[in-house]
């Protein structure tokens, strides 16, 4: 196959052109279904469904959305290829020249309404951060986490399958990043000379490896490897406060916050760091590239990447 | 801001080839409904009292007292009328404002009501209809009080009259004593979007009347329809109100245009909330397809102008992921259980009436278990009056030898009352 954009020769199975990054496959129609068969006889309603047979014709807005505050502060969330809807959510806030906030949430697929959980958590957390202007970043993050927990809890009504979501909240200034999180969505610092994962996943894998019960290799093979041990939701373990971490910025670099739909394809931070560094000086372009990368690898999960260039 | 809110709960995921889509829709009025709709706020309360010969004695005394009390309680901006029903219907008080003067006149007229004659409910309703049709924009609520069965000859007339009254006014039915027929009153109240209940003892009448009046006065908007759009080729297997009470609305569907039907829901009051269960059969889609299986909206019509109050979507998504498609939404499961509970009681009572003790024991036992499991304590309590419960978790029961007729009628009339899904331990 040749890329319609740059004429590069590509393997038949590729979904994106490795050379120019052009999308080779229209994701909005990629769901495996046959879709609406009515043809032009029917109209499409305001939500994208056929007014005749009811089958969806247009992708919902949440399937792929992008936010760009400035060329150095942006993010992208995408349904991916295999999932039917996007259960990730994120939001960005810049409340002064040197104060940036990011919230990224990944609804837990095995629960009821994970898409609503991530949306509610994201909205509540960012609102709490905005309300806390003037307070210390730690205080703002703790009230954000608590507001997000309240919002998600409200969705569930005691079911043992209550809506749940992961969350990463970050507040960054020019010399410091303060983070709080629950679950396995990650924050990473990528500078020219080094790349570090700032968060530690609340995952079964990490817990059993830390406890010495499994080696990392054995744990990774286990069916529970991806199970998370902490989250937001009505049935969240109420053991302790969410962790809060401070990271001093000593060099220019890029703060990446992402869901496992991205990092599953790059478990080693080196891969992500290379992708980020080679994407240039624009945050939105970088986020798009990361999403494109995950989709090219199979897009098995929803993908969200938010970037702040400092 | 006050408004109607509609929310759908379902597991939209279906396995390959599946066609049946189930969803529970919760409709809530937040704050006063009138503010949301600009309804007229007028209220017309019609009191229809059985004055047939069987009401003579304590019953008619209690009925007179209860009616007097109700009229005294009416706010000055409401209107009312009173009908005395026997084999004919007498308009004791034609529609008037509830001014102090009019109330006094009504109280004195009510004191003159005597119990004599037969029971032809169709005439009572016809008289009420003539009063209600003169107040089209108002909340139109009737209360029908009777102690006996409608006369056989009146049945065909009643059937036709119910059709004529449908959508014209709402009617609460109350049976006094134990000589009335549950099925008969239920048919009237359900077609006229009200409830039926038993007033076992005359002295309880007043409290119940007050309650009915309170609820009627709380209504802010009348003539709300539940509109359902479905895809071409889909079939609505059923549409039921499932909370606060089970009312099957399926056969009440009025076609609006192709693919669209309206179900009447009557008047809505402040902070009211109801749940509906939709079961829609659609054409199976391919794995990966997402279909809008139903679009529901609440529509309010006044002076020919339709206002959409709220809407919600019922979806179907075909997947090969069994962990998604095998999950049953817990609200759907809960109300499916409540419907089975009501049906078990109905069939169990029928079996008992026929003398089929084995079947009655099995069905009422099942009902005891379902009531226990779903936390429907009100129904569980009524069941305990007709069966000895050995183990409510297993549903083992024995039929009681001596059951007061009032108790079995209470169970039959209230069996359709449901509980909301419990907040915890669901």
CATH class of the largest domain in chain B: Alpha Beta
**CATH fold assignment of chain A:** Phosphatase 2c, domain 1
CATH topology of the largest domain in chain B: Rossmann fold
Strand order of the largest sheet of chain A: 1-2-12-11-7-8
Please summarize the sheet with the most strands of chain A.
6 strands, antiparallel
- Approximate shape of chain A: globular
Major sheet details of chain B: 6 strands, mixed
- Architecture (CATH level 2) name of the largest domain in chain B: 3-Layer(aba) Sandwich
Oligomer: heterodimer
Q: SSE order of chain A in H/E notation? A: EEEEHHEEEEHHEEEHHHE
Q: What structural category characterises the helix and strand content of chain A?
A: alpha+beta
Strand-residue proportion of chain A:
15-25%
Given the C-alpha coordinates, what overall shape of chain B results?
globular
- Known CATH architecture of chain A: 4-Layer Sandwich
Q: What percentage of residues of chain A falls in helices of 4 or more residues? A: 10-25%
The figure for the number of domains of chain A is: 1
Radius of gyration of chain A: 20 Å
CATH superfamily of chain A: PPM-type phosphatase domain
How would you sum up this structure, described in words?
The complex is a heterodimer of chains A (310) and B (426). In chain A, helix 1 runs antiparallel to helix 2. In chain A, strands 1-2-12-11-7-8 form a six-stranded antiparallel sheet. In chain A, strands 3, 4, 5, 6, 9 and 10 form a six-stranded antiparallel sheet that branches. Chain A has a single domain, classed as Phosphatase 2c, domain 1 (4-Layer Sandwich), CATH 3.60.40.10. Chain A is built from seven helices and twelve strands. With 310 residues, chain A is of the alpha+beta class. Chain B is α/β, with parallel strands linked by helices and 426 residues long. Helix content of chain B is 34%, strand content 34%. Chain B has a six-stranded mixed sheet with strand order 2-17-16-10-14-13. A six-stranded mixed sheet of chain B has the order 6-5-4-7-8-9, with helices on both faces. In chain B, strand 11 and strand 12 form a beta hairpin. The longest helix of chain B is centred in the last third of the chain and has 25 residues. The model of chain B has no long low-confidence stretch (mean pLDDT 90). At the A-B interface, loops of A face strand 16 and strand 17 of B.
